[in-house]
Amino acid sequence: MSRQGEGKLTGMNSFFIRTSGCNLRCWFCDTPYASWSPTGKTVSLDQLINDAIQAKVDHVVLTGGEPLLPAAIESLCDRLFEEGLHVTIETAGTIDKPIACDLLSLSPKLAGSTPDPDQHPRWSELHQSRRLPIDIMRRLIDGAKDYQLKFVVSSPDQFTEICSVADQLDAAADDVFIMPEGVTTEAMDRAQMQLRPLTESHGFQYCDRMQIRWYGNRRGT
Ligand SMILES: C[S@@+](CC[C@H](N)C(=O)[O-])C[C@H]1O[C@@H](n2cnc3c(N)ncnc32)[C@H](O)[C@@H]1O
Ligand SMILES: Nc1nc2[nH]cc(C(=O)O)c2c(=O)[nH]1
Ligand code: SF4
Ligand SMILES: [Mg+2]
Fold first, then answer.
1. Global ipTM
2. How confident is the model over 184-211, as pLDDT tens digits?
3. Which residue has its alpha carbon closest to ligand 3 atom 6?
4. Which of 52, 129, 130, 196 has minimal Cβ neighbours within 10 Å of its Cβ?
């Protein structure tokens, strides 16, 4: 049990399910234990549903790693819906699956997310070739009741690219969230000074990462 720290449902008590394993390798990934060096244990669907019910909250967040990768993700969503739970999926949006959810929290990965080609030649190439399949993202958005686009930003120069991706996805400015890259309050405060005015001048929403302010950058929060 935690609180949603990012985007339109910030502050909502939520049960988080984090799948391990990712098809991308963002250099800045804040959950390397679910991407670069995947760890974790196998949990049955029955157990997950049971735990979600026991958490006594209305909201469940599926994240990762990349939550659209596991074969059982559709069954998991269906069973959460049967329990009347609100399901948010946090995804980079690169996996083609006909999945339904209440809120698709889509975080398209910009060119600057690609890992260093000298240090990680294979992953750099794979990441670059996989990170932005606009047609797949459009289908995911069509299958969701609501959506938001959350961009991780490490430089103001990235706004041109963000506008282009948002345009290609026909996103309203109001559904675009600008989130600072960073895992400390100090880094987020520094970034905010530069990014907030730009965010507002584009009509986008600024997205702090409240979990870092509430809990610190701790696993399980
Ligand atoms: C760890 S990812 C898991 C879900 C999915 N793989 C994705 O990237 O959307 C969860 C969220 O954290 C964001 N994120 C990861 N590392 C970050 C960092 N260093 N700073 C800011 N946001 C970060 C991602 O963009 C995404 O919105
Ligand atoms: N509290 C909290 N809120 C979050 N919203 C999205 C998260 C994610 O890692 O996907 C996240 C997370 O890791 N923690
Ligand atoms: S897509 Fe998400 S989980 Fe995968 S490496 Fe990037 S931030 Fe991490
Ligand atoms: Mg997180």
1. 0.99
2. 999 999 999 999 999 999 999 999 999 9
3. 26
4. 129
The domain spans of the chain are 2-215
Is the minimum distance from the CB of 107 to ligand 2 under 6 angstroms?
Answer: no
DSSP single-letter state for residue 171: -
Give the separation between CA 144 and CA 68, rounded to whole angstroms. 14
Instruction: Indicate which ligand has the atom closest to the C-alpha of 114.
Output: 3
Residue 108's closest CA among 6, 35, 188, 26? 26
Q: Is the CB of 69 under 6 A from ligand 3?
A: no
- Residue-wise pLDDT for 35-67, tens only, equals 999 999 999 999 999 999 999 999 999 999 999
Is 150 annotated as contributing to ligand binding?
Answer: no
**pLDDT at position 189:** 96
Cβ–Cβ < 8 Å for 197, 153: no
- Does the C-beta of 23 come closer than 6 Å to ligand 2? no
Q: What is the CATH number of domain 2-215?
A: 3.20.20.70
Residue 3 CB less than 6 A away from ligand 2:
yes
Enumerate the H helices of the chain as residue ranges: 45-54, 73-82, 121-130, 134-143, 159-168, 185-201, 210-215
- Residue whose CA is at the smallest distance from ligand 2 atom 8: 63
Q: Does residue 1 have a pLDDT over 90?
A: no
- What are the tens digits of pLDDT across the range 14-30? 999 999 999 999 999 99
Is 31 annotated to bind a ligand? Reply is: yes
